[in-house]
Structure formats: C-alpha cells, structure tokens
Write a structure and sequence with these properties.
Layout: E1 3-11, E2 15-22, E3 33-39, H1 44-55, E4 65-73, E5 76-84, H2 91-96, H3 105-124, E6 127-128, E7 137-139, E8 145-147, E9 154-155, H4 174-179, H5 184-200, H6 210-218, H7 232-241, H8 252-255, H9 279-283, H10 329-337, E10 352-353
Antiparallel strand pairs: 1-2, 1-10, 2-3, 3-5, 4-5, 6-9, 7-8
Helix pairs in contact: 3-5, 5-7, 6-10
Length: about 350
C-alpha cells in the first residue's frame, strides 16, 4: 500500500506514530491508518510486534495491522508498520474527560468486557501481552476497545522467564516482581488495576517511589484496595483479579462469565455475592494503602523491559550454583533497591499523547 506520512500523533523512546494518508484512493476505500516507525537499526521489537499482530488479526478487540514497509527519510532508513487508527484516543485520555475523573460503572463494565474478550483471544493463541494498562487500551471510531502496543508481548512458555521483567511497574503482578513469572495471570492482575483506576480515577497503588512500590507488590500479602464505589459484583470481580497467588486468579474466560460483565445480569449495589466468594476470600483482609500522595511519575507510561537477576558471589555467603528461584523475594528486592540490579529504562516504549 502506497502512503504518505501525515501529522505526528505520538512518540516513544525509539519510535514515532503519524497518521498515514493513502497516496491514491483509486483502489477503493481505505480505513483510517497510523504508521509506527523507527530506525532500521532499532526495528527488531517493532518487527516482532508486527508478526504478533498478524497472528491476532481476527480479533476485533486487537488493533489491526495493514502491512509493513521501509522508507528513506532525511538520510535514514526507517521501518514502518501500518496500523488501524483509533480516533477515540486511549482510556487514560477518556478518564481525564470526566469532571470527577471517574468513569461511570456502566461504561467500566462495557470496556472491561471488551478488554477481556481481547485478552482471552490473545491468551488462547499462546501470547501474554505483558503491558496491559489504560494507555494501551485504545478506542475506535464507535467507542470499541482496541488493545495496542504489543512491543513487550511474549509467548507463554510455562510462564517463567529467568532473565527479564516486562511491563509497567504500576500494573505488575506479584509473581512478575518476585520471580519474573510472566504467564497469562499477569495480564489478569493488570486488568484488575485497569478496572480500579477507571472506577476511582487513581492508580490501584499509591506509593512515593518505584522501589517502595515493588516491595509492596512483591513482598507480603498486601493487594491494592478494592474500590469502595464499585457495586458488590464489581468488588468481587476486582478481588478475583487481585488473587495474590496466580494459580488462584481467575482466567479471562472465567471472568467473561462473571456477573459484573455478564449481559443477562442486572445487579444493584446491595446484591449479595457470597455465592461467588470462597472461604479463602472471606478470610482475607485488605491491607491499607500508603498515605502518601501518588507522585507525577505514577501516570507516566514508562515500562521496565529488562531486569537482570542478581548474581550472588561466595563473598556474600550465597552459592552461585544454586537455583536462582531459591533466592527469597525479600533478598531479590533488597538488591533491587540497593541498585545491585540496574533497570534499563532506555529501551522502553513510552508513548506520549500529543493530540
């Protein structure tokens, strides 16, 4: 498809997004398109994203890919991926449009159901998105959900990756933080964060720094506070997403049948959902939030894309030959905070909306 680069609509650390205008419309009607471009030398991640989108092309809740091309512009070779353009922006933008910065529950239900349909399809094809968040949930011309930005997505290979941690800290699951486990349950935890943020207008976690946030996510039994303004079934839905143990977390398929988003249910805030609550859930308590206001970095879209695991030396009293996963989460996170583990923020795909 022959196209012309149009208006800039966003950029990240290594790529840019522009509108793509067809050079000629003689061949028929063309959909609205955006082109995501980066230098050829940095194109491996974008090429991988294009291949994943090709596999997910039959899912209406995933942003469509129309092809790829190479171009030479200002003396540089660029790799370009043509994508479906979502004129409704993303859910983070949508949230800002409400005076109280809260999306009505009826809309939260609708967006959540569409999001879960997309995630269920992604998981069914063997992938994990790894970066579900408001900024990556786009809205089409008719308000339909379109999951975007598969730059961090990966094949679900037993759920464990021994040398990298992907995602945005605010949406990371406990198992991602303390062991690098990145299976489908990690996306479900992020769905819970998304629902909580839509309902309250604030991130699910409140903390003053990244190190403190990672400690709270990865150590102990604390989970984000369940939004008090949600209906009873909404609270239960979020609780299912925030199961600390990933094996107890509901799958996307299970959540699609939850009363919170089921088509044939009409509940009010006083409905008793004991039938949905296990003994384990009934005995669990919700830890209080950190009282500190959430700083500016909380709303950023930066993503950790690489986190080397600690190497333990004989001098530290640890054995190099032992299984890395036998290292306790508290030791692992302590090393993280003490800067023995370096976070590489430079390769993250931090999209800044400039509409």
């Amino acid at each position: 498809m022959d196209w012309i680069r149009g208006e800039n609509v966003g950029h990240g650390s290594f790529a840019t997004v522009h509108l793509a205008v067809p050079r000629s419309k003689s061949g028929g009607v063309f959909p609205l398109m955006a082109v995501k471009s980066c230098g050829f030398s940095q194109s491996s991640s974008l090429m991988k994203e294009k291949l994943i989108l090709d596999e997910l092309k039959d899912c209406p809740e995933v942003i469509r890919c129309f092809g790829e091309s190479f171009s030479y512009e200002n003396g540089e070779k660029l790799y370009n991926v043509l994508l479906e353009y979502a004129p409704g922006g993303n859910l983070a933008d949508k949230l800002k449009n409400y005076s109280d910065r809260r999306i009505p529950e009826s809309e939260v239900r609708r967006y959540t159901k569409a999001l879960l349909r997309g995630i269920h399809y992604i998981h069914k094809l063997g992938y994990v998105h790894c970066d579900i968040k408001l900024q990556n949930i786009l809205l089409g011309s008719e308000g339909g959900v379109k999951i975007a930005d598969f730059g961090l997505a990966k094949k679900a290979e037993g759920g464990v990756s021994a040398c990298e941690l992907r995602g945005t800290p605010l949406y990371m699951s406990p198992e991602m933080v303390y062991s690098g486990e990145q299976g489908p349950p990690a996306d479900i935890w992020a769905v819970g964060c998304v629902v909580a943020e839509m309902a309250t207008g604030s991130p699910a976690w409140r903390c003053s720094d990244v190190a403190g946030l990672l400690f709270r996510i990865g150590i102990g039994e604390e989970v984000p506070e369940i939004p008090g303004n949600l209906s009873a079934e909404g609270k239960d839905f979020v609780r299912r997403c925030f199961a600390k143990n990933p094996s107890n977390r509901w799958t996307a398929e299970m959540l699609l049948n939850h009363p919170f988003i089921a088509d044939d249910q009409d509940f009010d805030d006083d409905v008793d959902v004991v039938s949905l609550t296990t003994k384990e859930d009934q005995s669990a308590s919700i830890s209080p939030r950190c009282p500190l206001d959430f700083p500016d970095w909380a709303s950023s879209t930066c993503s950790i894309t690489f986190l080397p695991l600690p190497v333990y030396s004989p001098e530290s009293g640890s054995s190099l030959s032992r299984d890395l996963w036998s290292i306790s989460p508290s030791v692992h996170l302590r090393d993280l905070v003490n800067n023995q583990i370096l976070l590489d923020w430079s390769v993250s795909d931090d999209w800044l909306t400039v509409r």
